[in-house]
Amino acid sequence: MQYRFPEQFWWGSASSAAQAEGASLQGGKAPTIWDHWFEQSPNRFHQQIGPAQTSGFYEHFRDDIRLLKQLGHNSFRTSIAWSRLIPAGRGEPNPQAVAFYDAMLDELKAEGIEPFICLFHFDMPMSMQALGGWESREVIEAYAEFAETSFRLFGGKVKHWFTFNEPIVPVEGGYLYDFHYPNVVDFRRAATVAYHTMLAHAMAVQRYRELGQDGQIGIILNLTPSYPRSQHPADLKAAKIADLMFNRSFLDPAVKGEYPAELVELLREYDQLPACEPGDAALLAAGKIDLLGVNYYQPRRVKARSHAVNPASPFMPEWFFDYYEMPGRKMNPHRGWEIYEQGIYDILINLRDHYGNIPSYISENGMGVEGEARFKGEDGQIQDDYRIGFIRDHLIWLHKGLSEGCQCRGYHLWTFIDNWSWSNAYKNRYGFIELELESQTRRIKKSGQWFATAARENGFD
Ligand code: BG6
């Protein structure tokens, strides 16, 4: 076999509570910012489809876990919904939620699938947002309590925990670029949200360590390597600042327990530093992780700005760079994102060389396709050879990283079944399994069969 992976390599896929469970206001669950935003502005959501219309994992989880088995999975990531487990945000857990997550974890165990559990995947409870969301220190405390409750309830069954999924996304979406609630545009507030998220992360890690449970804790970051247009110093500087703002602002505190000095200096120079309190630095230092989840979709290509910044304009990351469309870059024709497989290797080499070769795994990678039903074959199965090629090519670069000493322990596709997504709803289909939304029927795509074989054989030719 040409590409053989290490024993115990994690083959699987990822999902999240809000995107798959459905039952968004049932079983005692309280609303999240998404339920609220959908009610307020349904037109922001593709075809006005909101978070209640999913593949119904809350109801169908047993059948879905059987499908995961058919997909050859030995591991699977999903999240616990804070607003389901603790509907008031703080206080007693909801017994229906405890029963649901217990049953789901038992079912995974029965099928021999290792659960990877994330504690926050963009789904801020509305009750917590009303307190200020991540701008509020009270919410940090509340989140740490929720994390501790989850560890105590499920720590016997879960050995891989993640505090956050892509914490930069609520910062960008909610406070910089207007695609998540509370849809404001304000860099200083964005910086506070980013900073408080990492304090919350560190507090959860600290609670986990205090409990002394047998397992690992980490965070999932969407690392987007920043490539400069040229080796000209101005382009190199632009790429460096983009890297500091979008990657190292989370990667350094998570792995090294502190922020990069250059980032702190930059924000200080522009008077954008969030307020710190005594004890913050020690808390951050206690938040170092055991395992890093890496979500990788596409790189960031940047160049020096071609026009001077208007100093009267609101401070934004783009004060320091412009985006650059590299001629000849390979695009996903079905979703408009660049495909650059080598990015996965570059990330792993960076972790090896600059982050102590921290154990990692690819926690998301995937190909969104609009209008995927047009690729159905005569028998009705989606013939997604493009996705097979995409996964295979990324795995080949991952494999090269392994052969050069990187500690990457697995690969999870986004996602196992076509799912609801933040305002895009069902526009971009990513799953190994096709979901027919109205009838709720499921059908494994060709890529799912390919992956099952690769997983069972632990490699491919
Ligand atoms: C990832 C998120 O960044 O991208 C997922 O973790 C999300 O939650 C995925 O669904 C794809 O995004 P979209 O908008 O194309 O569905």
UniProtKB/TrEMBL annotation:
One of its GO terms (molecular function) is hydrolase activity. The active site is at E364 (nucleophile). Keywords: Hydrolase. The keyword Hydrolase applies. PROSITE patterns: GLYCOSYL_HYDROL_F1_1. InterPro entries: GH, Glyco_hydro_1, Glyco_hydro_1_AS. The keyword Isomerase does not apply. PANTHER family: 6-PHOSPHO-BETA-GLUCOSIDASE GMUD (PTHR10353:SF139), GLYCOSYL HYDROLASE (PTHR10353). Belongs to the glycosyl hydrolase 1 family. This is Glycoside hydrolase family 1 protein. It comes from Aeromonas rivipollensis.
